[in-house]
Design brief:
Layout (H helix, E strand, L loop, with lengths): L1 H25 L9 H12 L1 H13 L6 H39 L30 E8 L2 E8 L7 E7 L14 H8 L3 E5 L11 H15 L1 H4 L1 E11 L1 H12 L5 E7 L5 H6 L9 H9 L7 H6 L13 E6 L8 H12 L4 E6 L13 H17 L2
Parallel strand pairs: 3-4, 3-5, 5-6, 6-7, 7-8
Antiparallel strand pairs: 1-2, 2-4
Helix pairs in contact: 1-3, 1-4, 2-3, 3-4, 4-13, 6-8
Length: 389
């Protein structure tokens, strides 16, 4: 009997410990991560929240006895379950006005995929859908003595010459490649867009403006091979994530390319001068060192280069339409970058849309079907249809 009582006691303690751990993880759906590994956990907690909801329910249903550890665990589990539902609740709130807000800026848009006419900005059940992979081909678009720059080309699944989205990957300017987050590339190809996901020269060996020059070279290559790749050269759009968004924005606002119609900014650093003055937490990332490696010195050493790397500095009344997407809980790139860019675009009368995701963190679109992933993809699709019509 003593052995049985001991086993019951141990099981209650394990249940209690699991509920506490789940509660701590669930706090990341509300509060910003304080450390790098916690940031990665926060992506999973917010964009795969249904997994944690299911796990919490299983733990809760494992026992509701009245002992202090059972009761305490049950209370912790219920609190965790409520918090894990908050990204879903907030996603529905954002979705409620998203279509009308977007139409107010860009109108209904051009011809879009049949399915998009009835597609919802967010659906709980779409969190379980399967993503389709589109086969791509890899091309070398520029050569250096020690480096070949490549692009993964996802052809449109609709016939004829189609618009082309050039995707610039993130990675703090010093790492990463064009294999990152390919799900959106396949999705866009499936609804009728060619997608070219490019590599570029990385810091610290190569510094700004080398990556921007690589974007120019990629567009030149695509234009040169447009007939073979079925590209409508009057409809290019740049899309960048994180550091890649800074590159895409800077290229978009400085490149004199008649066929470049718009730029999409996923949580990018738009004001490098301000960003240097307000660095990220050292527990997350040494953002000043990352910027110095990319730009070639501290702000005190090369202030003009910091200004020259700030997309916000080049916004004017001739700038192209811009889509900004940023999560309020981003701990790597402050949402203030997007707020400042949004204000500058407003001041210059540039058509733009700012999608704010209150629960989302940096890299939330890791899951295309998560709350943030669905809302971002919905908005990107409508933005592309509006600017390439």
């Amino acid at each position: 009997m003593n052995c049985i009582h001991y086993l019951f006691y141990k099981s209650r303690m394990v249940r209690f410990a699991i509920c506490i751990v789940l509660l701590l993880i669930s706090l990341l759906t509300i509060f910003k991560a304080f450390e790098y590994s916690m940031w990665m956990v926060s992506i999973i907690a917010t964009e795969f929240c249904w997994v944690f909801m299911l796990l919490t329910l299983v733990v809760l249903l494992s026992g509701f006895l009245s002992s202090k550890y059972q009761l305490a665990g049950t209370i912790a589990g219920i609190m965790a379950l409520i918090l894990f539902t908050t990204p879903i609740i907030r996603a529905y709130r954002v979705a409620a006005n998203l279509k009308q807000d977007f139409i107010a800026v860009f109108g209904p848009g051009g011809p879009i995929a049949d399915s998009a006419n009835t597609q919802l900005p967010y659906s709980f059940f779409n969190m379980f859908r399967r993503n389709n992979d589109i086969a791509y081909k890899t091309y070398i678009y520029n050569k250096y003595p020690d480096l070949n720059l490549t692009m993964d080309y996802f052809p449109s699944q609709k016939k004829g010459n189609r618009p082309c989205v050039v995707v610039v990957h993130g990675g703090s300017w010093n790492k990463g490649d064009n294999k990152q987050l390919p799900e959106l590339n396949s999705y866009l190809a499936g609804i009728g867009y060619n997608v070219a996901a490019i590599t570029y020269r990385l810091a610290p060996k190569y510094q700004s403006p080398a990556p921007v020059e690589d974007v120019y070279a990629a567009i030149a290559y695509l234009r040169q091979h447009a007939a073979a790749l079925n590209i409508d050269t009057g409809n290019f759009v740049l899309l960048g994530r994180s550091a890649g968004a800074q590159i895409a924005l800077l290229a978009a606002y400085t490149l004199r390319e008649p066929g470049l119609k718009a730029v999409i900014d996923y949580y990018g650093p738009a004001d490098m001068v301000w960003g240097y003055s307000v660095p990220a937490s050292p527990l997350i990332m040494d953002s000043r060192k990352v910027m110095c490696d990319y730009i070639g010195g501290t702000y005190q050493q090369v202030p003009k280069k910091f200004a020259a790397c700030s997309p916000l500095e080049f916004v004017n009344k001739q700038s192209i339409p811009t889509l900004i997407i940023h999560g309020a809980n981003d701990v790597l790139v402050s949402p203030d970058h997007s707020r400042r860019l949004n204000l500058k675009l407003e001041q210059n009368g540039i058509k733009h849309f700012y999608l704010r995701l209150p629960w989302a963190t940096h890299g939330f679109d890791f899951n295309l079907n998560g709350p943030g992933g669905q809302l971002a993809t919905y908005t990107v699709e409508r933005f592309l249809n509006a600017v390439t019509k």
